[in-house]
Amino acid sequence: MEHEISHRPSYAQLTLSLDAGETVRAEAGAMVSQSGDIEIQTRAEGGLLKSLSRSMLGGESFFMNTFTAHGPSSVQLAPALAGDIQHHDLDGETLFVQSTSFIAAHPDIAVDTKFGGGKSFFGGEGLFLLKLSGSGPAFLSSYGAIDEHTVEPGTPLTVDTGHIVAFEDTVAFSVRKVGGLKSTLFSGEGLVCEFTGDGTVWTQTRSPDAFLAWLIPKLPSTSSSQ
């Protein structure tokens, strides 16, 4: 499987070139186009319970699409939000991915749900993670551009939960309030995640939660009489 990421970092699109017999699983609704002799199957991956947890807790679709090439083929994928796409090659390790950042992966990679921390009553932010484990290529998307941070022992990294894309399982994390009650209520930050240990964390330059908090008050309201 060969890949090309174009139009980055603002409106990235992923093009996968598949030979006969190669397969890729993708988030439902991510396909832009496809060409060649390719079969698409839609199913609840991992069974009913795993699909429900991935949908209800992880923010992903209940179903996934599986693309199987019966000859030289290509499929173009893109995330729902404007941003970048990043490629990761897993070799038996585990990667934790923020919900909505998963776009596609090799079928040998298991996608499960891990609860990372409760939502803030006022900020609405939480940390619901997808657990990617196995071997093969995986592709993650972001809202905005992607930054890479190296966490070293003794030097913790604090990130707003809405800006997390992914992190390695060699990094420990804890979710907490940004400060005291006043900071939690009025700072606009909600919850943050503190990473410790030795590994890599990827963040996005924009937050979907912050965008919704800005957008929703500006939407026109419908009166009850209408």
Automatic annotation (TrEMBL):
| Any Pfam family hit | AIM24
Taxonomic source organism: Haloarcula onubensis
TM spans, by residue?
Answer: none
Q: Which residues form a coiled coil?
A: none
Q: Which domain of life is it from?
A: Archaea
Which named protein is this?
TIGR00266 family protein
Query: Which InterPro entries does this one have?
Result: AIM24, AIM24_sf, Trp_RNA-bd_attenuator-like_dom
